Write the structure tokens for this entry.
Amino acid sequence: MNYIVLDLEWNQCPYGKEKENKNIPFEIIEIGAVKLNDRRECIDKFSKLIKPTVYKEIHYYTKNMLSITMKDLKNGVSFTKAMGEFLEWCGDDYIFCTWGASDLIELQRNMEYYGMSPLAEGPFKFYDVQKVYSMLFEEDKTVRRSLEYAVDRFDILKAAAFHRAKEDATYTARVMQYIRYDDMEHYYSIDTYHRPANKKKEVYALFDNHSKYISREFSSKEEAMADREVISTRCYVCGKNARKKIRWFTGNGKLYFCQAYCEHHGWLRGKIRMKKTDNGKFYVIKTLRLVSGEEALFVKEKQEEVRKKRREKRKS
Ligand SMILES: [Zn+2]
């Protein structure tokens, strides 16, 4: 299997957010990629400039960051042509690697805008190198560093300027060489631009210290939270239903927590991330994690916090 290390450059509406085309807030203007073999040696590179059709001027932010002019882009090819060639270049057996999760989202949004067939039928696995980097090298795992920051950390030679697609893909590939295979695999990501089409296609992924479930779409949050599978707390080690000690609750309607107890494996902490789609529907990403008795207090405290806020709200 090959690794396709992908990087995109995009432009946005030069006249501000209010005037943007909501179906394509970020128009891709460059695709760059590096192909690595299974030993992570570079075997090929891809680079294509794209002629814009939506935003015909470059946003000042993009202009400051990229060394690309509209004149360059006018010599580019159409997005569909570039993308077609890119997918053919990728081959059949590969996994995407990106710095951050947004490239794959914008890539698929652009594909949808131009009426191309979807990149995948549903969620798919990829490596978010930026996330893996944080998991391995940062104290605070939620922090996200720039690519240049990681390049500096490993003293990688800065032979080319940043913020051009092929160059950034090359730098990302270089950073990957400092990450062990096992670690990459340990922290793999799942792209959910296309949700599971139905109940049968829902995703169950097992990691060594937690499990992840990605639901199909629902028309409302309430409908999602009424679904048996969504709210279930099955222990991911033994597969038995763990009894809920604290039922699902939420403070903001985005994050839900619960706590359950498996007779064989102890405390399970549940977290649901309620996600809204572009078309106004909802789906959930649920993680269940075995935790120590002490860590289990977290949910209880969270619940107290939510209750307290409610009481204060009622009073005011
Ligand atoms: Zn169990």
